[in-house]
Predict the structure.
Amino acid sequence: MSFSMYLSPEDEGSLLSIDLQAIVSNWQTLTARLSPGCQAGAVVKADAYGLGADRVAPALAAAGCRRFFVASLEEGLRLRPLLAGLEILVLNGPFPGTEAAFAAHDLIPVLNSLEQVAGWAALADKTGTNRACVLHLDTGMARLGLRAEQASLLAADRSMLSRLGLIMVMSHLASADQPNDPLNSRQLAAFQKISQLFPGLETSLAASSGIFLGPAWHGHWVRPGAALYGVAPNADAPNPMTQVVRLQGKIIQLRDVDAGDSVGYGATHHMAAAGRLAIVAAGYADGYFRSLGNRGYGFVGERRVPVVGRVSMDLIAFDVTAIPTEALSPGAMIDLIGPDLTVDDVAAAAGTIGYEVLTALGRRYRRHYRGGSMA
Ligand SMILES: *Cc1c(COP(=O)(O)O)cnc(C)c1O
């Protein structure tokens, strides 16, 4: 059953605009930094960081991206029909028993443990074919990947290696967004040392931030995610990436308040003077974090308006007293993320990182995609 007969699209609350052309241009910006022999894939896990992998991945494929990274088998299966002939790598690797599904759908697992290695070799025994896979080496995250001594064991096991179809070794940097952290060089040295045990394979070390550490960190493939979506790769330097997201909160009511009136749950804000509030249709259920209560802000045109009181599940109050009355009416929009208010700005106000702001963006927003046509 559809309710569209009751609603024109403009009635449907807050609007999330996603600029696919900006994502493509960010991918091209990153690609332009790479040395010959190095290519950029694209990380589209978690539904392309909440922006819609079914739209983002085909747009990047049309721009020439050939290798895509997802987190799980399920994410890979969803993308497979949209990326015919292109590589999809699954970062979490196979759970025992799912190896055949990887093979059947042409998904390349990242093998993160000796158990996953053994499972992939067992599939080769069963089917008589070595299928492509990637080996993850841990160099300092202690998250996924073989420890150095496990990698040495595997490298010495010719029979196991001969059943694997390894195409690449990879590792992941823990502190690449802080270029001066000595861990970056230590991880690079460790990766170079361990990857020598697997000669002749492609290498991959850098995600978004690692690309900006310099060519030594690039290897054959870089794996950017966040930077594609406009997040700053280095928190202390100007952001070279183009903003991708605009989030416009719809005003559903404007109301006058008196000096001393309290606003919202817990009465955490009291009006210092009489004024005017705009009540916007978004809340923590939409990923507008509750921590933004009394800390976040929006923009009306070029004018900054503060969040007052707590963020509710579905509503946010902005103090718009400073905005001329005729400039706002119910149905007008306040930028919650926009030209003057980046994903990283919102994250800073919320006490988190841009990654979390993006992946939390709610499913209730009307979504509008721009650019990225396949033509
Ligand atoms: C998520 C992830 C990436 C992408 O990281 P960004 O910081 O978003 O560029 C790359 N590699 C691995 C292993 C990841 O888990």
Notes: The longest helix spans residues 114-127. The radius of gyration is 24 Å. The pocket of pyridoxal-5'-phosphate is lined by residues 43, 45, 91, 172, 207-209, 223-227 (CB under 6 Å).
